[in-house]
Design a protein that fits this description.
Layout lengths: L2 H5 L5 H11 L8 E4 L9 H16 L3 E6 L9 H13 L9 E2 L4 H13 L3 E4 L3 H8 L16 H12 L9 E4 L14 E5 L14 E3 L1 H11 L4 E5 L6 H11 L6 E5 L11 H9 L14 H7 L3 H11 L10 H15 L2 E2 L1 E2 L2 E6 L7 E7 L9 E7 L1 E5 L3 E2 L10 E2 L3 E4 L4 E9 L5 E9 L15 E2 L1 E3 L4 E8 L26 E9 L11 E4 L3 E11 L2 E8 L5 H9 L3
Parallel strand pairs: 1-2, 2-3, 8-9, 10-25, 12-20, 16-17, 18-21, 23-27
Antiparallel strand pairs: 4-5, 5-6, 6-7, 11-24, 12-15, 13-14, 15-22, 18-19, 19-20, 23-24, 25-26, 26-27
The structure holds adenosine-5'-triphosphate (ATP) and magnesium ion (MG).
The site of adenosine-5'-triphosphate has 15 residues, from helix 3, strand 8 and helix 10.
Length: about 575
């Protein structure tokens, strides 16, 4: 990561807490964080915020950040997710050293902690059914009731827990619970489950070794403690779990008691950052997969052409606070736009081809014209682009009659400049039997290369490619995945899938790209002049033909959407 990026990091309330801790000599000045995903889906842009925060702090404080999988729910987790998460964290630019941590590595130790709680009289085996447990738990306004099994003896609890582990009981028949307070105003403290029985699942790390699995809350805080985490950063919804975490750590008297600090989740408008909902989009076929370029997943953003630097920049811009907020998509898009404006070479691509025959250009003749690869940065150099008698222009750049004064492109009888080439005039419009325009007959002015001759006013500039030299490609334009800023969160409570934008993907299957792009490699990025920034799809082709995904438009189109939204359109 380059110097500039790290040295300008703005502070935030978490960094301030850490500064104070270090000054006070807490943890001997050590800073240890972790990023603890559950491998039950791919990482999304919300996770990026947490990754940048945790790894960023470790980097800046000369500390450590563990990548740890909180893998307590084997039935929703798998090895594909474990791999994808590692790939995505690496791609974002972070490194966790030699060791990947798994909460499942601690299953034996966690089991011993549970036994310890039983011995302390702080945990008991409960035989209530799931439904009874729910009834006994009470509500936000009513206290819960003690389970009839709450006062089992330590010996009986130890025996039953041993037999739970040995597989003597069926799923749901018994659980191990913490003995805290059924009347606590905090429901998390009403004797939460510590261990449950799960037969017949194969865990991606521990296989069939266990038939009891520790609950997330028990596992998470103790795994942090085992790893010597000093600052346990998590999102606000875990604030109410903190008293439970503290209770476990205090009862067990563990040597390391990490300090939990909560921050607000990232919510991004017009998309969702809930793994459960993203999973449903994938499973129900609303998108192509986890890496669909419309998905707010790291894999989707990468395929779409977002750079890791732009995502890190985004995470820095949104900052870290405790207040709930919803970030505009425009913020993310301006990060990538700024990056690509500086870093993407310019090319020409015709998405909606319309043939132009330059009638006064001699048949069989061809020439190479020089074009700058970047309008401001000369270090990008120049390239040769072939010009000859037949070229493609974009259908949208021609109209028989200008619809208004603003239309500066080509019209019948009018002139326009071909980008990096000559001025042409449209002499004739050829139509098919249905009246559809199929070709333009034009003439070029050989004296117009580079500049307009004296007294000539040609304002419009359009892009083009040579018919003989163009390469064919599919080009995909993306729009927001949802047509509502907070999908699913409406007064009528409608399902978020009802807010899916039916026009989120537009494919142009027969596009012509300038010859130079024949050497483009998967993942390469370009500005297609006047069309936006594009990335050659890094993983897919259209039957061997390259696919170019539009990463982002040239200008902010979100401002317009916001305006429409506000005026109720
Ligand atoms: P979901 O609720 O969508 O399943 P999660 O929070 O359960 O997501 P985890 O795999 O447990 O997903 O998340 C790993 C870490 O990423 C956690 O520390 C979590 O707080 C953080 N995280 C998840 N979503 C966001 C978000 N939208 N903004 C910031 N941090 C997030
Ligand atoms: Mg979670």
């Amino acid at each position: 990561m380059d110097q500039n990026e790290t040295s300008n990091k703005p502070s935030n309330f978490i960094r301030q807490i850490i500064d104070v801790d270090i000054a006070a000599g807490k943890n001997d000045g050590r800073v240890a964080t972790r990023f603890p995903p559950e491998p039950n889906g791919y990482l999304h842009i919300g996770h990026a915020k947490s990754i940048c925060l945790n790894f960023g702090i470790a980097e800046d404080y000369n500390g450590t950040c563990n990548l740890r999988f909180d893998d307590t729910n084997p039935h929703k987790e798998n090895a594909e997710f474990v791999e994808a998460i590692q790939r995505d964290v690496h791609w974002l630019g972070y490194d966790w050293g030699d060791k990947v941590y798994f909460a499942s590595d601690y299953f034996e130790q966690l089991h011993d902690y549970a036994v310890q709680l039983i011995e302390l009289g702080k945990a008991y085996v409960c035989d209530l059914s799931a439904e009874e447990t729910r009834e006994y738990r009470g509500t936000l306004t009513d206290p819960g009731k003690d389970s009839p099994y709450r006062d089992r003896s330590v010996a009986e609890n130890l025996d039953l827990f041993t037999r739970m582990r040995a597989g003597e009981f069926a799923d749901g028949e018994r659980v191990l619970r913490a003995k805290i307070d059924m009347a606590s105003p905090n429901i998390n403290l009403r004797d939460p489950t510590i261990y449950r029985i799960r037969h017949g699942v194969v865990h991606h790390q521990t296989g069939a070794e266990w038939c009891i699995y520790p609950m997330y809350d028990f596992t998470h805080c103790l795994s942090d403690s085992i790893e010597g985490i000093t600052h346990s950063l998590c999102t606000l919804e875990f604030e109410d779990h903190r008293p439970l975490y503290d209770w476990y750590l205090d009862q067990l008297g563990v040597p390391c008691h990490p300090q939990q600090i909560e921050f607000s989740r990232l919510n991004l408008q017009y998309t969702i950052t809930s793994k459960r909902k993203l999973t449903a989009l994938v499973d129900e076929g609303f998108v192509e997969g986890w890496d669909d370029p419309r998905m707010p997943t790291i894999a989707g953003l990468r395929r779409r052409g977002f750079t890791s630097a732009s995502i890190r920049e985004f995470c820095q811009r949104i900052g870290v606070t405790k207040s709930e907020n919803s970030v505009e998509m425009g913020v993310l898009e301006s990060c990538i736009r700024e990056d690509l404006n500086v870093n993407a070479p310019r090319r020409m691509a015709v998405l909606r081809p319309l043939k132009v025959v330059v009638e006064n250009y001699p048949e069989g003749q061809a020439e190479q014209l020089e074009a700058a690869n970047h309008p401001q940065d000369e270090s990008f150099g120049t390239r040769q682009i072939p010009f000859d008698r037949e070229i493609w222009v974009d259908r949208d750049d021609f109209m028989e009659v200008a619809p208004n004064q603003k239309f500066k492109r080509l019209v019948a009888g009018g002139e326009v400049r071909l980008r990096n080439a000559y001025v042409i005039r449209c002499d004739e419009v050829i139509k098919d039997e249905q009246g559809e325009i199929i070709e333009l007959r034009c003439s070029y002015d050989a004296d117009t290369l580079g500049a307009n001759p004296e007294g000539r006013k040609v304002k419009g500039v359009i892009h083009w490619v040579s018919v003989a030299h163009a390469i064919e490609a599919e080009v995909r334009l993306y729009d927001r995945l949802f047509s509502h800023p907070t999908p699913g969160a409406t007064k009528d409570g409608s399902d978020y899938t009802a807010h899916l934008n039916p026009d989120s993907l537009r494919s142009f299957t027969r596009c012509y790209l300038e010859a130079n792009l024949a050497s483009a490699q998967p993942g390469d990025q370009f500005q297609f002049e006047r069309e936006g920034y594009f990335c050659m799809d890094p993983v897919r082709t259209a039957g061997g033909m390259p696919i170019f995904n539009r990463t982002v438009t040239l200008r902010d189109s979100w401002a317009k959407i916001e305006k429409q939204q506000n005026s109720g359109k």
